[in-house]
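Listing S7. Sequence submitted for prediction.
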Amino acid sequence: MTLFELLRDRAKNQSTMIASRSSRRVVTYRKFWSRIERGTARLKSEWNVEPGDTVAYWGLGHQDALMLYIATARCGARLLPLEHASLQQGSTAILREIPVKILLHDDDTVFAHPPAVPQLVNLSSLIATRCHHVPVIEEDAQRSSLITLSGDAKSGFHLQEKSLHQLSSAIVNNPVQEFRIAAALFDNDVFAPQVLSTLTAGGTIIFR
């Protein structure tokens, strides 16, 4: 069972369990999946994200960024997280090498110089209002869904792409029932072994 199938099943059969919470909101698994579907529809039908495209996230460990990743993966696209200062500072070179269809950013982000991307929108727009389109989605956990970068502009960035299937191989056998995001959400030692493991087990991701 893929994470897509697991979350859909939990939304139906264990709907009141808490998927994520922060100081602003508590999200049950039913709401979590509903917002992922809403985000998927907006990405595909309103923002024209197609399989193979890249979607960028500029921020730091936001609660909605987790939904953005899963919605992006459902579209067959890849998420490029720009969470660390070194990546944001090197974003001009990164976005030249990895063109993106749209960049979503935390609502409180202030850009000295906005990134040169086709579309630049607030992350809250992903789920702020319902999208009335119901696009056809072919979920494929084998498609590349996450791009991670390490290094810096001076020494060069190292790019790594992984599919949801590959990320799932890092899921631990005895996950915790709650995991707190201290800073970045998509770091290699956090996202798959901690975040995806906790979700797979029906636990709760705690955000600031």
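Caption to Listing S7: primary sequence and predicted structure tokens for the chain studied. The chain has one domain: 3-206. Residues 3-206 form a domain with the Rossmann fold fold (CATH 3.40.50.12780).
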